[in-house]
Structure formats: C-alpha cells, structure tokens
Predict the structure of DUF642 domain-containing protein.
Amino acid sequence: MVFSSTKCRWASVFLLLVVCSASAVVEDGSLVNGDFESPPSGGFSSDAGISDGPAVIPGWKTNGTVELVESGQKQGGMILIVPQGAHAVRLGNDAEISQEVKVEKGSLYSVTFSAARTCAQLESLNVSVPPASQTIDLQTLYSVQGWDSYAWAFQAEEEDARVVFRNPGMEDDPTCGPIIDDIAIKKLFVPEKPKDNAVVNGDFEEGPWMFRNESLGVLLPTNLDEDTSSLPGWNVESNRAVRYIDSYHFSVPGGKRAIELLSGKEGIISQMVQTKPNKPYRLTFSLGHASDACKQPLAVMAFAGDQAQNIHYTPDSNSTFQTANLNFTAKAERTRVAFYSVYYNTRTDDMSSLCGPVVDDVRVEQSASVRIRVGGLGLLLILLLVVVLL
Ligand SMILES: *[C@@H]1O[C@H](CO)[C@@H](O)[C@H](O)[C@H]1NC(C)=O
Ligand SMILES: *[C@@H]1O[C@H](CO)[C@@H](O)[C@H](O)[C@H]1NC(C)=O
Ligand SMILES: *[C@@H]1O[C@H](CO)[C@@H](O)[C@H](O)[C@H]1NC(C)=O
Ligand SMILES: *[C@@H]1O[C@H](CO)[C@@H](O)[C@H](O)[C@H]1NC(C)=O
Ligand SMILES: *[C@@H]1O[C@H](CO)[C@@H](O)[C@H](O)[C@H]1NC(C)=O
C-alpha cells in the first residue's frame, strides 16, 4: 500500500517534469547544435565530396542540398571559410535548414548567426520565422576574415517557432551557396524610457546575442520597423549594416555595448523620440573609436529634428571617446535623432575591413540652461521697453 502510493507520487513527479520540460521556452544562447560541431550519427565525413543523400545534422531539419563543411576544406582551389570551430553548413540552391524552438508568444526575439559566401558575389540568405522573414544580402564583406555575424529580430506570433535559413539563390554550380555557423537566439526586452532622457536604449545595452569569444561584433542589417528591431528602440535606416560591438573586443564608451557606424552615409541608425513642440532640447552622446585600428579621421553626422551637425572625433591619448552635443528646438511630438559616419573608413592593418566612429550613451534632454537664457532675454526686452517708454 505504502509502496504503491510512493511509486505513484514518483510517477506524477516524473510526469510533471516531462510536462515542464516540454513547454520550456528556448534559453538565450546557441540553438541546439547551433555551431554544427555535433557529429552526425555516421560521424563527420572527412572527404570533401558532397554526399548524395541529405546530410543528417543533429538538431536540424534540412531540405535540398545541405552540406556539412569542415575548416580547411577546399573547393576548386579555394579554401572554404568556417567562421568558428571546425564545422559549419553550406546551403545549396534553394536549400534550407530549420529548427523548432518554443518561444513566448508576443515577445520579441533576435536571432544571431554567422555567414560567409562561397563562389558567387550575389549571395543572400533568407532568414525567417514564418510569417516573418528578411533576406540578408551577403554581397558586402565587412571584415577581411570573409565572414560576419548578423542579427535579425522577430515578434513571436505563436509558441512554436521554426527558425529557417534558406538560400534563395539559383547558381549554375549547385554546391555554391552561403555557409552558416553559430546560430543563437535571445529574447529581447524593450528598456523603459528613462525619466530624464527621451531616448530608449540610448546606451545600446539591450541588443542581440553576442558570443563572448566572437571578436567581429554583430552586424545589424536594414530594419525599418522599430517594433521588431534587434536593437530595441532603434532603426537601421540604410541599405548597409551598422556594427554592434562589445567591450570584450572593442573600446566602448559606457557599459558593455555600443554601435560602430560603417560605410559613410550608407549606414544610418535612427530613433523617433518623444518631444514637446517648441521646447528646446539638447542631444548629447559619446563619440569615440573602437580601438580597432580604424584609419582616422573619424566623424559623425548627427541629426536632431531640423538640426544637423558634422562632429569630428579628436584623438586624446587618455580616452577612447569624447562627449558631443547638439541643441535643437522640437517642432513636433516626435523628433528624429539619427547618426551616420561622415567618412568611409577601413582598418589600417588590413586596409579592407570596414570600421568607423563609435556612438554610445545617446541622450535627449529638455535644456534648462536655454530656458534661463530665454528668461534673461525677456528681462532685457522689458528693460528696453522701460528705456523706450522713458
Ligand atoms: C522542400 O522544398 C521544396 C521546394 O523548394 C518543397 O516543395 C518541399 O515541400 C520541401 N520539403 C519539405 C519536407 O519541407
Ligand atoms: C523568405 O522565406 C519566407 C518563408 O520561407 C518567404 O515567405 C519569403 O517570401 C521569403 N522572402 C524572400 C525575399 O524570398
Ligand atoms: C567559443 O565558445 C564556445 C562556447 O561558448 C565554444 O564552444 C567554442 O569552441 C569557442 N570558440 C572558439 C573559437 O574559441
Ligand atoms: C592625460 O593625463 C595626464 C595625467 O593624468 C595629463 O597630464 C595629460 O594632460 C592628459 N592628456 C590629455 C591630452 O588630456
Ligand atoms: C548647446 O547649448 C549649451 C548651453 O546653452 C552650450 O553650452 C553648448 O555649447 C551648446 N552646444 C552647441 C553644439 O552649440
């Protein structure tokens, strides 16, 4: 009697565990076998040939020509690029990989992944969590390593999400196609607007997943929808990406994260901030270098409402950044704040990786000092009036 009831309790505890683990939402970090280092059941095939059947990749569903590639593997004299570790996957024409994850319905998520192109110049990657999708252009190489990390965000419409990577390309050589590695996910929160600052996430601390040991930062491609941005609050308005950088591998003015602007005016970040019409405001921000051997000069074009200012970074051996500001009068309830790099900078050590000025700690505050000055002006007018009347 006692024995069987104990068994029952154990069984129900077990059931509870099963139920709990089945509904557990995905944790921040790598997806299952997101680095493609788990060996397939038959082991990694060490020869460079392409298997006829679809590769069975632990954790992933595939469709079309999906190949596990190994670092050092050659194709027609060219060594294939594997971003991290020893393995990655390559997607042939119209091929895809996907993984199902449990997410929190209604929440915002960002997917980080590394990608390299192989033969063609015009390779791209369609990242989706149906019905949301974005095609990421891999044509521009931002770093000389030949690969980059990217982030893309989506709003979870269902608890069951399928993260899909598809090569929409149709190349003559079916073995061409992008290489993907290091796929991770992160649930984002939208930071509250601070009381004394109209900018949301002005310190850029909330953003996509970054692997601690990946040194290239994460590119944020075009994103015009501020509600689904990997960088909550901000849009990437341009057709080129900006780089999200961390303090482990770059110089960052404040906290652990900042933005490095790339590609001149082809890389623009912006935010619509809440303002009161006809009130004076001041935009302040940190402007610096990332300690990535970026060729000077570094400068940004900063916009706030109808004001625009070109601000050059002045190198100072004691600091990696300076504080810059721009005064403006709000014309409406929402004012656009935006930044782009004035120059098209590259690194001095490899002459080709894109780099640029770092922006951080963006603040928009109603300016009290200007109000005092207006008060002084009023006093002056009254005095003048008195003088005229006399
Ligand atoms: C594989 O992709 C093709 C089209 O590219 C599609 O018709 C087919 O249904 C897909 N198969 C699976 C199992 O998803
Ligand atoms: C990307 O893939 C999604 C889902 O597979 C599809 O709905 C969408 O049309 C594709 N986008 C492009 C630009 O091909
Ligand atoms: C990076 O860290 C992950 C674990 O966080 C590890 O599996 C991987 O091997 C590391 N990669 C390198 C190149 O150190
Ligand atoms: C750097 O710091 C040192 C001492 O802390 C000071 O003497 C020097 O003037 C500073 N240089 C600059 C450019 O601010
Ligand atoms: C903005 O106004 C403040 C206070 O009036 C002033 O100190 C600052 O220099 C102004 N900034 C610019 C860029 O003119």
About this structure: The chain has two helices and 26 strands.
